[in-house]
Amino acid sequence: MTTANQNNIQQQNPDALVEVPLHSVAHGRAGDKGNRLNVSIMPYDPACFELLAEQLKESRVLAAYAHRGASSVKRYDLPKLPAMNFVIDDVLEGGVNGSLNLDGHGKSNSFILLGLSVRVPFKYVRQPV
Amino acid sequence: MSSIFRVGNCSGFSGDRVDAAAPVVETLIKLGGPSAIFFETLGERTVALAQLEKRRDPERGYEPMLERLLEPVLVRCAKHGIPIIGNFGAANPVGAAKVIARLATRLGLPELKIGVVYGDDVRERLNLDTHEVYEADTGLDMGGGEVVSANAYLDAKPIVDALKAGAQIVVTGRTGDPSLCLAPLIHHFGWAYDDWNKMAAGATAGHLLECGTQLTGGYYYDPGYKDVPDPANIGFPIAEVTAEGGLVVTKADSTGGLVNAQIVKEQLLYEIHDPRHYITPDVVLDFSDVTVTEIGKDRVEVKGFKGSPAPRTIKATVCFDGGWLGEGEISYAGPNCQARARAAADVLLERLKIRKLDVQARVDLIGVSSVHDGDGGDKWRASSLAPQDIRVRLAVSARTQDDADQAAREALALYCCGPAGGGGVRWRTTPRIRTQSYLMLPSDLAPGYSLHLAKELA
Fold first, then answer.
1. Helix B401-417, helix B337-355: angle, nearest 10
2. Domains in chain A: how many in total?
3. Which of A41, A81, B192, B329 has the fewest CB atoms within 10 Å distance of its CB?
4. Which residue of A has its CA nearest to B269?
């Protein structure tokens, strides 16, 4: 197990596990409806979908949004895309209409999920170009 | 070889770029073949803000950028037979139609046929005590505010009927956003309303296009990871739909942005809950087997969506007076700004207690945390980040404008009374709207359209 800071060493070994932000291996988008948020997550490489699905359990995602008052998380899988869709309830402090948060829509909230750490083989890690 | 109908989107929300339409229309004209464009400018709360505007001035209450949006393309569309559909009527579709009529007359189109869809305003038809609350909204606190607006999400049919009657531009208030795109397809291909997979093709196209550049690089751009060419000039999207329900998405020529599989996936799931059961007024969509394939530069084919019968109920969103938001901000920078900003935050919260103001409050330390924290500020309080420039933001909700204003002014008072070197205060109050959705039955509604010549309405 290494961190992303040691990636230069790992470049020789594409199968070595590294711990990186989800953002390095997947992209996503947040949308709101009332006090409910959805965050889609798509791996850049479809081959690591299962690996990410194992590590992004509903309970872990709920914990990531707990400080925002999230009450439940439901994950829907679309293996053909592949993508995961997380539906997070009561996370927007009342939503765009009631929130005191600058981002009442929760538009920036995909990056809470994309900030979670995941362990993946180095070959899946996307380097900024 | 199947015939193709193209639908271009020229606006994704009220506040979108106003120079979007011309490249879309020029692309459609250049490609030839039948086409239509649509503008989506009506968010959940936009209609309530428009209703408040209409109270102040009965002639207003439609999309404020209406003329700016339409003027660059109205003549070109009329000349080339490209119908325009838009929910820019907001709270006053007739008012919007009059503006369009005057614009058309000024531009030499006195014979322009303007369709106006009515029936979405259900303030007289919705009973808050007996109609069922939409599931995602149960448990919201409405605070007993006055009803500002109540609008049902109409389906595509009134728009189709207006197009059949010859409308060259159709103005609506609230409809399903995908319906704005589906309607010209139903009209052109003569699809039956219960041909669910064809309804699904048009509604999926509408779902993908309705947020404008979110399908062409907007809200996607993540430098170094997801790059977007010419991001200041992102082109708006175009769907190519076949009579059999085939769907390819692309964008306006000679513009920035891009259309790729990643973007289409992101937008496919945007504001979706259960992807097997995405409800629109016209059809229930199942995206569980959708595949997206890049078939050319800026061309993505979307397949595998399925449709099932439209819902028995119709969603109607009610907007209530939601009291007032008060905000006050002040900045601290340079040596020890961390401590000065944190002290200012604590002083602000203490002042609200001393003043006994009837408000709920939140403080952010912008520079440390501006959007990801909870109302308690646990993240910034625990943060070890030490930026050299921090903006303290107080936000309060209050029943009255006076309470919101008095709370916000506590940030102003920090000029003299607060920690050293506080500057750049801004404070303001904003009326708030709260929304709750209800489920109505088709028999509760009486939607329809009227048709007008520009010269008669101008």
1. 140
2. 1
3. B192
4. A40
Domain span at A42: 23-118
Judge whether A114 lies within some domain.
yes
Residue A55 placed within a domain: yes
Residue at A51 is within a domain: yes
Please report, for chain B, the start and end positions of each structural domain, with discontinuous segments joined by +. Answer: 4-119+154-313+441-457, 318-437
CB nearest B265 (choices: A42, A69, A129) = A42
- According to the model, what pLDDT value does residue B141 have? 59
Rounded CA separation B248/B264 (Å): 11
* Three-state secondary-structure class, residue A118: strand
Q: Is the pLDDT of residue B421 over 90?
A: yes
Cα–Cα distance measured from residue B114 to residue B112, given in angstroms and rounded to the nearest whole number: 6
Angstrom distance (rounded) from CA B94 to CA A58: 48
- The CATH label, of 3.30.70.100, 3.10.50.40, 3.40.50.2000, 3.10.450.70, for the domain at B318-437 is 3.30.70.100
Q: Could you tell me which chain B residue has the CA closest to the CA of A98?
A: B434
Which residues of A, range 73-92, sit inside 8 Å of B by Cβ? 74, 76, 78, 80-81, 83, 85, 87, 90
Residue B55 tokens read as 């109270």
Mean pLDDT of chain B: 95
ipTM of the complex as predicted? 0.94
What integer pLDDT is reported at residue A35 of this predicted model?
A: 84
Instruction: Say whether A5 sits in a helix, a strand or coil.
Output: helix
For position B140, what pLDDT does the model report? 59
Residue A41 domain-assigned (yes or no): yes
| CB-CB neighbors (< 8 A) of A91 in chain B | none
Low-confidence ranges of chain A (pLDDT < 70): 1-12
pLDDT digit string (tens) for B334-343? 999 999 999 9
